[in-house]
Amino acid sequence: MTLTALEEIGEPFETRLIAFMAGEHRRPAYLAVNPSGKVPALDTGSGVVTQNGSILLYLARTRPDAGLLPLTGEPLQESAIVSALFRFSSDLHPLVTRFVLPGMMLCSNDAAPQVREKAEELLLQQLHPIDAQLDAQPWVLGGNWSILDSYLAWIWFRITGAGFDHGIFPAIATHYERAGERPSARAALAHEKRAMAELVRRGLSFTPPRLKTEN
Ligand SMILES: N[C@@H](CCC(=O)N[C@@H](CS)C(=O)NCC(=O)O)C(=O)O
């Protein structure tokens, strides 16, 4: 979603690939950028911004013309936006990592299938109310697109790409198609695909363990 936000802004930027399977996020070079070892981090030229929610707020505030978030300065209205950001970055994002890369969590490889199954159960719980909401309105915040739609689309792209059943939540699946039609989303996907191709070329792609429900 950071890539989509940068594409929406439309100014040139550079990306650097951090290969988890090679442990690059734990190496000194990356820890000097983000000591928590989490991706993404945005180097603004005047300082590094970390945490997805913070990066998206930073970009929305510094480039209000890009229309990333409808920030009005009204505390209650803004708290609803920040709440949705935290919901995606704190509640859902860690489940995505556990579902897609369960072996990266602090467990033996033998425990990876159980980590993934628990993550699937919690994803089902968390996504259920979002699917109901999107049945009643086209975008996460109501009638207009925001960068939160890109965050949700990223979550869906990652988990369905790793075997999550996309038939369970039809409204989120339709929202994903709609969100993917934006030129910024297509450009961000092209970045992702180039990164995946690079990982495959380096022998660092990852196949998640199968769920009981997968054939
Ligand atoms: N709360 C962080 C979570 C980011 C996060 O978990 N990113 C994943 C990649 S999608 C990561 O860096 N995983 C490495 C790890 O958890 O060690 C944020 O919103 O930026």
TrEMBL record:
InterPro entries, A to Z: Glutathione-S-Trfase_C-like, Glutathione-S-Trfase_C_sf, Glutathione_S-Trfase, Glutathione_S-Trfase_N, Thioredoxin-like_sf
SUPFAM superfamilies associated with the record: GST C-terminal domain-like, Thioredoxin-like
Keywords linked to the UniProt accession: Transferase
Record has Transferase as a keyword: yes
Coiled-coil boundaries: none
Superkingdom of the organism of origin: Bacteria
Keyword Hydrolase: no
Domain GST N-terminal per the UniProt entry, residue ranges: 1-67
One Pfam family here: GST_N
Protein name: Glutathione S-transferase family protein
